[in-house]
Structures are given as C-alpha cells and as structure tokens.
Amino acid sequence: MSAYNPGGFFQRELAMLRILPASRLLLTTLACACLLVFSLPGSAQENGQCLQCHGTRELFIREEGRERSLFVDAQQFNASVHKAFSCQVCHADFATFPHPARAARADCGDCHSEQAQAVVQSVHGQRLGAAGQAAKCSDCHTIHNVRSASDPAASVYPLTIPQTCGQCHPYREISFDGVISAQVTSFDQDHHGHALLVKGLVHSATCVSCHGAHDIRPATDPQSRIAPANLVKTCGSCHAGIFLQYQKSLHGVLVELGETGVATCSDCHSSHLRRRTGDEMVLSIIQACSRCHPQQGRTYHNTYHGKVTALGYTRVARCSSCHGAHNILPASDPQSTIHPGRIAKVCAQCHAGSNPNFAQYLVHADPYNRAAYPWLYWARVGMVGLLVAVFFFWGIHTGLRAYRFRRERHHREELLARSPQERYYERHGLFHRLLHGVVIVSFLLLAATGLPLRYSTTSWGHFIMRLCGGFDNAGYLHRLGAILTFGYFFTHVGSVFYRWLVRKEKGLFWGPNSLVPQLKDFTDLIQNLRWFLGTGERPKFDRWTYWEKFDYWAVFWGMAIIGTSGLVMWLSTLFTRFFPGWVINVAHVLHSEEALLAVGYIFTIHFFNAHLRPGKFPMDMVIFNGLISETELRVERPQEYARMQASGDLERKAVVPGKRLMVHPPRVVGYTALGIGLLLVALVIVSGIYYLITAR
User: Fold this and answer.
1) Quick one: average pLDDT of 233-247?
2) Quick one: pLDDT at residue 17?
3) Do the strands 175-176 and 654-655 form a parallel or antiparallel pair, or are they unpaired?
4) Each residue of 127-138: pLDDT tens digit?
5) Which H or E run contains 627?
6) Which end of the chain is more exposed for a tag (fewer CB within 10 A), N or C?
7) Which residues does 481 contact at the CB level (< 8 Å), separation at least 6?
C-alpha cells in the first residue's frame, strides 16, 4: 500500500493551526478541495488494495467479547458521496501496511467542522462528552454508504429518517432513558408520520424538520428548535399561513414578548401521539384549552354545550367555535370573533335568528360567584335550598312512616285479608287513568334523556345516550316528552274548567273532594307525625291525603319552573328578543335543579307512598284499573267511607270489576316504569356519592 497519505498530512497540519473557528472553516474547505484533487489519481488503486482484505465478508475482529465485522461493501461505497476519496482520508492511521490493530476512529469533523460543532452542543454530543451512549455520525449516516439526503437509498432520506432515528428512539415503545414518555411512542401514527410513512409524502415533517439534524437540543434549551419561544417558527416553516395568523393572535403576541406558559403549537397539537380526526380531534382541543384555562374549562363543561361535548358529540359550540383556532384575539380587539360587534354573527352560525341579546349568554358564567353573577348565584341557591328542604322533610316523613308501618302488623294484615267477594268502587275514571299513563311515559322520557346530560361524565350517561340513538335522537325524544307534558297539563286544566264552568260541578275548589289544600290537611299532617312517633292516633283521611295533594300541586310548580325554563332554552333566540341573554343561564340552572328534584322525589318519596309501602308492595294497581276495594276504602280513607255509607253511595256506586282486576298489559307497563325509575335514581345516588368522595 502506498505510503503517500495526503489526508493524513492535511490532518496533522490542520491540528497544528491555532486559528479562529471561521478561519478554520475556510481553510478546512480549501484543504478538502485540495485533498480531493491530490487523491483522485490514486484513490481507486489505493482503495482496491484495502478492499483486498476488507472486501471479504469473513473479516472481523473481537471487541469486548463480541465480533465486529470489518467488511466494506465496495458497491455501496462506490455509490456513496465519498466514492472519490481514498480510504486514508478518513483512516489516516492506516496509511501503511501492515497497519496497527487499533487506531483512532475516523473524525468526520475534519471535513464537516460546522456540523461537528453543532453536534458537540447537542444532546448527543453532551452525552458522548459525558462518556455516555448517544448517536454518532455513523449511526445516522452509516460508515461507508453515506449518501445525499435527496437519495432515496440514503439513511437520512425523508422516508428513512424515522427508521434511522428509531434505532435509538423506538416510536413503538413507551420508555426512554428509563422515564415513561409519550413523546416517542407513535410518530408513525400521528399526522406527520401518517403523511410520511403511509401516504409517502416526502415533504411532510420528519424528525429533523422539528428537532434539527445535528443541533438537536432539549426543549428546555432556549436555542432549541422546539423551545416554546422557537417552536412556532419551527412549525411555521411548513405551515406559513397558520403561522401568520398565530403571530397576530393573543398567544403569538405574548410569545413574542417573552411570556412563559403561553400556548404554542404542541400544546394543542400534541406531537408523536396517535393522530386524531373528526370528533376526536375536536374533543382533544377542548381538553387542551382547559389545561391552560381551567376556570373557563370548568364553567364551559357546566353549560349545555360542555355537557354535550362531554358525551362525545361535537356539533355544538366548542372553544374554537367562538374564539377561533389560531387567530385568537381579546374581546376588545375589533377583529376578534368575540368582539361585542361581531359575536352575534358568530352565534348565528349555529343559532339562526341570533340577536345582540342572545349573544349576551354567559358562556363562562360561574353560579358560585355571587359578585359577578348575582342572578345566577341566587337562582342556584334558591333551587338547591328547595331541593334540600323537600328531601329533608319528606325523607324524614317517609322514614318515620316506614318505621310505623313496620310496627303496625295488624294494619298490613287487614289490608291484605281482602275477601274475593267484597265490593269495589271506581276511584279513577278512564280519562284520568289515560292521563296518568301519559304522565308516566313523558316523565320517564324526560328523565332518561335529560339525566345523561347532567351526568355527562359518567359511563352510564354515555351508555343511555347511545341507547337513545345518539345526542340528536335524545334531543328529539326529550322535546317529545316536553310536548306530551304540556299536553297533559293543559288537558287537565281544561277539563277542570270544563267541569266548573260547563257542567257546574260543586266542590272542585273546596270541600272533601277538592285537591286544594285546606286546614284539615295541616291538622292531618301534625296528627300523622304524632302517630309515627307513637304519641297519638292515626288520622282519619278523606278522599285525598295531604301527601297526594302535595304531589298534585308539585306538577303545577314543576310546570312553572321546568316548563318555562325548558321553553327558554328551546326557543332561546325568541325569548332573547325581549330578555337579556343571561336568562338562558338562569333557565339552565332552574331546569337542571328542578329536574333533579322531580326525578328524586317521584322515584323515591312518591314511589314509596304509592307502591312500595307495606300493604301495597310491589305496586298499587288503582291508577291502572281505577278500582279500590271496600277494605282499602275503609282502612285507608275512613272519612270518605263514612260519608259514602251515610249517603248510601256504598250501595249505589259499587262496580263489578270483572277482568279489570287482572289488567296484565298495564301491570307490565307499571312494573317496567317502576324498574326504570328505581334504576335511574340508584344511578343518580351512586354518582352523587362518587362525586363527594372524589371531590375530597
């Protein structure tokens, strides 16, 4: 092998120079050019001499107990960018033969000093300087098959870069340096990786597009391409249009001012994570905004829009619908989408007929903040106070009643010991039985489609919503339930006025047959409580008890609160022609809390009073067949029984029940309704307990 070694000569001469980095770069470039000229005539011959041994696949050495191949593929080398250089250019220590068994590794920095200097300051160079393991030049560019980045066969060609970087950073594993990290898990599944590796778009971002090729630095380094202050420009090199929007946005201005903690590209568009499209992408953006704006995120999730999106449906307003995506500006900016002069048009994208009052809807109102939102605060306090008061009183009442019934064994036996031959009386006519059937259907429909919204973060809320066929179908069913509710309410009110004004019936508004509360109801309540406690006799009830009257008038209260607030939310653009937008916020609070009160009361207190108490369990069929036995009339309503006995109605008004006592279809409906109601209230109770536990 020739002893002439221009590469080694140049290396020694350059090492002797004590010059500035810029001058060294210039001299290195000139020297490499000269080296190329001097080495060309003999490079092929000299390389051929080296390949006499290194062209053999069986050539290897043993290092640290392992075999390392010394084979050089001549075909690959001759196709590389270094094909014109002799072996001694990189392997100067092997200028003579036989050459030493060990020699210094080739220093790529002799020719590529700028890249070498960048590597020294990178995470790879710092780890190598600390005697750690990190990527070297040959790990990325190979040793003898170094090719241009534009060559599809190169290890640094865009389509190959993920595989090259993946040798140390496997994007199918979840650990890196012993630390669990989602940053290196799924490049092949994120948007950039999918475009690059699946669709073959070589202009898509690769690892080096974001992290750099040689100057790879951690995100904590201010000089890093992925440092918060620089990341936007890095992404903007490909996404130029979005970059211009972001620069003018509130986030972009704050970043330029050096503010920390401001949202940049990766805060909303997570890197190296599985790509999200459609609804999943929209929902992830809501979560991203909430991480930086937790207060706004919490108040948004308490609104109708937030509850719908929590159920996985996105065809309602989310953060970007109002604020924009990359062009987010403060409300004081006339160009902002939430500027008072423009917000009504933004709302009109979803709400036809939007007006300035409607645009005053408080998206991020906090019902717990009395100073900022007094009407909303007192609406919540009033409804929660009502809910607590109702359940406190009737909860104690029901508990005492259940305790007393448990001790009154003879009372239960008396009710159950009915004679098959005893007489029956019609307590409810067909009209009222059918009307109550509509009440059952509409109430269950409203509860089953409304509760999932209130409990939108629960798994059962998602399940029921899917069972309803999705959010759109649930909305239609809920409005159908509302129409049925208004229908039976006005039908009943109309029948009362018909009986009063047309049929001239007496006793509708006062007397023993009236459902209007009277003094006797209050005395019955006091006497009944004394009976519960064992300090008095059981009161003698007439046709209607005080708890039945409470149930009856609760419907009127419910229609005033639930019905009106529901209409305000349903026809919000119509109502806000006359009222400010915050009435929608108040309506939402009233509707939600009153609905919870109604569901809880009906499925617990009412169910116990009507069906689950001793003597009636598991169900009182009077509302389905309309019949009450003489025994029940005498025991449960002794004053009515005495009046009928005195007037002779016991004989005249007795009916032959026939097949009405069986009523199999209504029985199935009744048990189904009872089961659904008990299941729903159980889910509500469990969710409430879980919330109290986790809130701590």
Assistant:
1) 92
2) 33
3) unpaired
4) 887 777 888 898
5) strand 627-629
6) C
7) 441, 442, 443, 445, 446, 449
Q: Could you tell me which residues come within 8 angstroms of residue 672 by beta carbon, excluding any fewer than 6 positions away?
A: none
Q: CB within 8 A of 229, min separation 6: which ones?
A: 222, 255, 258
Please state, as a whole number, how many other Cβ atoms lie within 10 Å of the Cβ of residue 323.
Answer: 20
599 vs 455: CA distance, rounded Å: 13
CA distances from 452 to 367, 443, 480, 515, 687 (A): 21, 15, 17, 34, 11
Exposure b/e, 438-466, CB count within 10 A at least 16 = b: bbbbbbbbbbbbbbbbbbbebebbbebbe
Would you call 69 helix, strand, or coil by DSSP?
strand
Find, among 483, 491, 472, 490, the residue nearest to 445 by Cα.
Answer: 483
Separation of CA 20 from chain center: 58
Helices (H), 514-625: 519-532, 546-558, 564-570, 572-575, 582-600, 607, 622-625
Tokens standing for 426?
């019609």
Q: Dmax over Cα atoms in the chain, in whole Å? A: 138
Mean pLDDT of 403-430: 72
Whether 613 and 401 have beta carbons less than 8 Å apart is answered as: yes
Strands (E) located in 365-407: none
CA angle 599, 602, 603 (to 5 degrees): 80
Q: Which amino acid is at 627?
A: L
**Hey, where are the domains in the chain?**
1-111, 276-360
The full length of the chain comes to 696
Calpha distance 194→275 (Å, rounded): 8
Mean pLDDT (the chain) is 84
Sign of CA dihedral 133, 138, 139, 141: positive
- Specify the amino acid at residue 408: E
